[in-house]
Each structure stands twice: as C-alpha cells, then as structure tokens.
Write a structure and sequence with these properties.
Blueprint: H1 9-18, H2 34-41, H3 48-60, E1 72-80, E2 83-91, E3 97-100, E4 103-106, H4 111-121, E5 123-124, H5 128-137, E6 140-141, H6 156-172, E7 183-184, E8 188-190, E9 202-209, E10 215-224, E11 232-233, E12 237-238, E13 240-243, E14 246-249, H7 250-255, E15 289-295, E16 298-303, E17 311-317, E18 327-330, E19 335-336, E20 344-353, E21 358-359, E22 366-369, E23 377-381, H8 395-404, E24 409-413, H9 414-418, E25 429-435, H10 446-457, E26 461-466, H11 469-475, H12 479-487, E27 491-496, H13 498-501, E28 508-511, E29 520-522, E30 537-541, E31 546-551, E32 557-564, E33 573-578, H14 588-603, E34 609-613, E35 617-622, E36 629-634, E37 641-646, E38 652-658, E39 662-666, E40 673-679, E41 682-688
Parallel strand pairs: 6-7, 8-11, 23-24, 23-25, 25-26, 26-33
Antiparallel strand pairs: 1-2, 3-4, 5-12, 8-9, 9-10, 13-14, 15-16, 15-24, 16-19, 17-18, 17-20, 20-21, 20-22, 27-30, 28-29, 28-31, 31-32, 32-33, 34-35, 35-36, 36-39, 37-38, 37-40, 40-41
Helix pairs in contact: 3-4, 8-14, 11-12
Length: 689
C-alpha cells in the first residue's frame, strides 16, 4: 500500500487558505432531497454495488447539505518526547449525508465506498482516539437511539426510520445550536485501525457515545466489510494538517513512530486506510473549462467536475508566453483575485490529486480581461486537432486583437460550452476558433450546432474562422450538418483549397467589398511562426450573405458576412465567416485591423449600433453597451411608431412611442444583461453593464 508523503510547501499555503471547506462541487438547485434519494435506493432488488454507486454519484456531484461545507476544527493532544503536544484538524460537522439542509439523509455505507469518498474529497476516516476527541469537542452531544435488533436493521427503510429519529433530536436543539455545530452521539463510526488487517475483509466500528462519554460500541471487527446497519456513520476528516508550522497529513502522523500518540491509541498504524481504494496514478488533462472575468480585479475559472481531481494548479501570464509559478487551488475555489485592472490574463492549468500527489499534463491556454466594464465577447476554442503547428494557445492572437479594440472578453473550450459551464446568450458577440479542426475531431458537433443555432436565432453576433469547416460539414457531413453550414454559416462548400483545389498555392485574400478597410490579407504558409494553412475551403455565399474577400485568383470566395434573421429566428443576428484561420493572419497590426472591422460590424462604429434602411434613414442606439442609459437617434423618416424592449425570455420591459429624432432610454432599474430592442421591422441587441 502506497504511503502518503509529506506535502510540498505550496500545499501548506493551500491548506491555510481553504482548509475549512469540503472539497465537493456546489449543490445543484435541482438535486434530490434526502427523502427523494431514499426512494431511489429503497428497492429490495437493488444490489449493494448499485446502491453505493448511486450514493457515490450524488456525493461526487455535490449533493450534500450546505452546512456540511464548512468543516469544524478539533484538537487532539498527547505527550510526545516527554512534552505536552497537540495537532488540530478539520472534521465534518455531522455524519455524511445526502440532500439539503432541510431534508437530508444520514447515509450508512460500506468501508469500500467510504474510502472512495474520502479519497475524492482529500479526507480520511477517524481512529478510535479521534472519535473520542471529536465527541469531547462536540457542542451537540445527542443521546444514542438504538432500534431493537432484527433482520430489518440492515435495510434502507430502517436506515430512514433512524434518520428521522436522529433529525428529530437534532431539530430539538437547532435554535440553540444551529446547523454546522459539531455533532456526536448519533451514530457509530467506521474507523481506521490496525484491526483492519488482523482479519481480511472486515469493517471496524467504534463509538456511539452516551451523554456520559462512554461508548456503546467497543472497537470491533466482527462484521464483514459488506455489512452495515442503521447505526453506522461516516465521519470525514481532512487529511491535510499543519504540525508545528509544517504541512503534513493525518496519515503521516499515524505512521510516525514518535507522533502517532496524538491521533492513535493503538500505536503506529502502518497502513492507515482500508485496502479498497484504487490509487490514482494518472489524471485526465483538463479539457472542459472556462476562464471568465468576475470583476475589475478578479478572474473566475469553471471546470467540469472530475472525481479524481482534488485541486488544480493554475499558471498565469500577461503575454501568453512566460508564466508564473502555479497556484494550487481547491477545485471548488478557482478564483484569481488581486489582479491588475485592464489586463489580459492568459491561463493554463493542470489537474492535481492531493492524496496521491498526481498531476496531469498541462491544458490548452485560455484568457480573460479584468476590464472595468462587463465583458461582451466570448472566445470559444474548438481547435482540438493534434495537427502540425497547433500550439493550443491561439487565444493570444484572438484575445489581443479583441482587447486592442477595447472590448473585454472571456473564453472557454468547446467542451465547456456543451457541458453547460458557460452560455452563449450571456455575450453580445462570440469568436469561434476552429483552426484546422476537421472531420476527425468535428468542427461543430451536433450539440454545438444546436447551441450556435439558438444563439443566432436570438440575435447573436458570431465570428467563425477555420480551414476545414466546409469540408467537414458540407462535403462530408450529414443532412443536419449541411443544413447548419448552408443556412447558419450561410455558405455552400465548393472545393478544398483555392486555385481549383491545389493545396498550398495561395496565401492571400483580396477584398472586393468595403467591409474590410485593407486591400489584402496574408495568412501563414508555415514560414511566419504560426502554421501552414494548406487547405482553406472555397465556398459560395448563400442568400443575402455578402462575399467580402477572394483568394489570389480573385474569383474564389473565402470570407463573408451576413446580417438578418436566421431560420426560426426571433431577432436579427450577424455572422462573419472566414474559411481560413484568423490566427494565421500576419502581422499583428493586420489582425488587429481586421478584428476591428468585425467588432465595428457587430457593435457599430464608435460603439453605436446602426441599422440602415435604404432611401429612408438610419436608426442608431448608443452607447452600447452602457450602464443603463441609452440614446435612440434617427434620421430621415424613422421617428414614427412605438418601440419595445424585452429581456431574453421575451418579457416586455419597456414599451414607448418614438416621437422625436433623439430620445433617451433608461434601463437603470433593470438587472445587467442583454435586452432586445424592436422598432418596426428592425431588431437590435443592447447590453446593460
């Protein structure tokens, strides 16, 4: 059995910062209550393995009461080398439960499952001495409530019966001792002991103290490890501790020939855990995550839950090249604070398991801006293909170009999008990086297509760039893929690579509309430090979409833009689609200029959203975004009729007659967010910061 060695000094800092918080994801508002969960596991035909799998799923997803989140400090003492000594550690305030504060189920379980959950949360189980010390420290000492022995005592209905009794006892004193106070006396403990190994496959139990302090249950291993009854409880103890200023663990102390008396009355416990846990030997590289602006000095990270991960090592950079030493943060507390306002921060991370000291490979790079204003652009990196030149950090080119135009941004992986960690409608514009992503990795999966369709139907602004999108979706794709490409990316694929399909024969796009202010765009042939774009798509623009640039030949389209309703849309959206990757444009000034044109199209020149009607006049809304005060300015024949403003659910917030060429809209009383302004047949998004 592997020993857990003394932790590095960065864990010492992490321990002090977050040691009082149980390392589980937040509880979902839709999670099962304790009573509902009892129903799901009450079937007599449900096997022990199936039942415990359900328990593990609920707990690993964070379905525990909120008052369990804050652990309680306990001190254990002993005479060490002739001197009084002590160590403090953090414990769960009550026995492990599933559910919410008002409806939870104290859940008996096997030592196999208890060990898995302890490993998941960076915890251990207590020893006999620790159980005694916890009882002594408890502010709520409940009297044991035994049930008459019988065959039903190992069944879920009896578990639930006892749970009701114990909760009644706890509720009787909750006004004096609110939830979160340390409780003891309501259950026996499954404990760590040398008896685990004296007879194979046994559970060791102890405790259930009377109010006088004497335990009903002496230390015992008479039951098989598959046995549990209503009286068994699981008390989690945070494994990480600090002893005389040095970071160590409960398990290290139990294994120490000199320090063990502080936590053990059995002497050294050579293997201070049950032999059922599967050691974590490797971790998946983080793939579903987002880096978002929280406020002017903070960035928050969201990562899809991985049960094997206890922490993340976070690296930051202000140029995307040189990174700081990592900060090690609990996976439930991924916040970077005290940052400089108005700065792009590039972030990469490694998954980390504290218990086994295992670290994953480093992730791709994302970024966010600590702007004083709410960010308005989301960058989605969908370029996962392991192709020559993919450095997984093209947020550098995209992010810097967006911020050059003074637009704040956050970013995420496409996996984070489909995992629901971040929502497209929260952002006024989206920049989708697809590089040389192709059919092997999917440019837009079915799930991504659905999210992008909804975004465009609701009036979103989307910039997409990538060299193989048409090849994947229109040439090789399904009926739904073709529909997405033809009707939402507004293009029909013609062939692979300009100059009639000759790979690598053209690395210039020439403007033939006024959309771009530059005459030509140069993209990388592999000699400019990014990567060689061998096979950019050639397409025809569909419907009223406008082809803006052609490749070298002058007749093969590679860029388009479109503004208007998309199929089944409720508000006019905008699209810019490039058939070669934005990040491969050189140099940086050229990229900035092109991104500036795209942002002007989405947001309106000089932060004014403009809708023009031929031979009639213009209808402008500015500044956009704003702090809640907007101006409507019209020319020509517009000032005649009513306008409405609704939120994204379709609720009308403002309805007013437009009677003059310049009027003020006041949304100060409404929450920050995106609103839809409708005037006659014209629709535009406005953003309140």
């Amino acid at each position: 059995m592997k020993k857990i060695h003394v932790l590095l000094i960065f864990l010492f800092c992490s321990f002090f910062s977050f040691s009082q918080v149980l390392n589980l994801p937040p509880r979902s508002a839709t999670a099962l209550t304790g009573s509902q969960f009892v129903v799901t596991i009450s079937s007599g035909s449900l096997s022990l393995t199936a039942r415990e799998n359900l328990i593990y799923t609920e707990i690993s997803n964070g379905n525990v009461p909120d008052f369990y989140r804050n652990l309680v400090l306990v001190t254990s003492r002993a005479v060490i080398s002739g001197l009084n000594d002590s160590v403090t550690y953090y414990v769960l305030p009550d026995y492990l439960a599933v559910g919410c504060d008002t409806n939870y189920f104290l859940c008996p379980m096997s030592p196999m499952l208890a060990t898995d959950i302890a490993d998941l949360t960076g915890c251990t189980l207590p020893t006999r001495k620790m159980v005694n010390d916890i009882w002594g420290a408890a502010t709520v000492k409940l009297a044991p409530s035994p049930i008459t022995p019988g065959p039903g005592m190992t069944t879920v209905p009896v578990f639930d019966q006892h749970n009701t009794t114990v909760k009644g006892q706890r509720n009787a004193v909750v006004a004096i001792f609110p939830l979160g106070n340390l409780v003891s006396g309501d259950k026996k403990d499954v404990v760590i002991s040398n008896l685990i190994y004296s007879t194979p496959n046994r559970v060791v139990i102890y405790g259930w103290h009377n109010t006088s302090g004497s335990p009903i249950q002496p230390l015992s291993n008479v039951h098989a490890d598959t046995y549990m009854d209503y009286s068994h409880g699981i008390r989690l103890i945070q494994n990480a501790v600090v002893y005389h200023g040095t970071a160590t663990t409960v398990k290290n102390i139990l294994q120490s020939s000199t320090l063990n008396p502080m936590l053990s009355d059995e002497g050294v416990i050579t293997t201070p855990q049950y032999p059922y846990n599967t050691a974590v030997t490797s971790l998946n590289t983080p793939s579903a995550f987002a880096v978002t602006r929280l406020n002017a000095t903070s960035i928050k990270l969201y990562v899809a839950n991985d049960p094997d991960v206890t922490h993340y090592k976070i690296y930051t950079s202000t140029d995307g090249i040189t990174y700081s030493a990592p900060q090690t943060l609990l996976k439930t507390s991924l916040l970077l604070s005290g940052l400089t306002t108005g700065q792009v921060y590039f972030v990469k991370m490694e998954a980390f398991n504290q218990t086994y000291n295992v670290t994953s490979a480093v992730s791709e790079v994302l970024a966010a801006v600590t702007s004083a204003d709410t960010d308005s652009v989301l960058v989605v990196n969908g370029f996962d293909r392991a192709t020559a030149g993919n450095t997984y950090n093209f947020i550098i080119q995209h992010g810097n170009a967006i911020w050059n135009k003074a637009k704040g941004f956050s970013s995420c992986t496409n996996e984070a999008l489909t995992a629901g960690l971040i929502d497209l409608p929260d952002y006024f514009a989206v920049d989708y990086i697809l590089g040389e992503e192709s059919s092997a990795n999917e440019t837009f999966s079915t799930a991504e297509q659905g999210l992008v369709k909804q975004y465009l139907q609701g009036g979103g602004n989307l910039f997409v760039s990538g060299a193989e999108i048409g090849w994947d979706l229109d040439h090789l794709g399904s009926v739904s893929d073709k529909d997405f490409y033809n009707n939402y990316l507004m293009a029909t694929y013609l062939y692979d690579a300009p100059n009639a399909g000759t790979a690598g024969s053209c690395y210039t796009a020439v403007a033939h509309t006024s959309f771009y202010t530059n005459d030509s765009v140069l993209y990388d042939d592999g000699t400019h430090g990014i990567y060689n774009v061998n096979y950019p798509d050639v397409f025809a623009a569909n419907g009223t979409a406008v082809a803006d640039m052609s490749y070298c030949s002058g007749t093969e389209n590679g860029m388009l833009h479109y503004g208007g309703l998309f199929p089944s849309g409720t508000a006019a959206g905008k699209l810019v689609y490039w058939a070669f990757p934005f990040e491969t444009v050189y140099d940086g000034m050229q990229r900035n200029s092109l991104m500036g044109n795209i942002i002007d199209y989405f947001f309106g020149t000089n932060v004014t959203t403009t809708i023009a009607e031929e031979n009639v006049g213009t209808f402008n809304v500015y500044p956009n975004p704003s702090n809640g005060i907007f101006t409507i300015e019209t020319t020509g024949n517009f000032p005649d009729g009513a306008y409405t403003i609704m939120d994204l659910t379709g609720k009308i917030m403002v309805r007013k007659q437009l009677t003059q060429s310049r009027e003020t809209i006041d949304l100060s009383e409404f929450p920050a967010g995106i609103y839809i302004l409708n005037y006659k047949e014209h629709t535009t998004k406005i953003i309140k910061n």
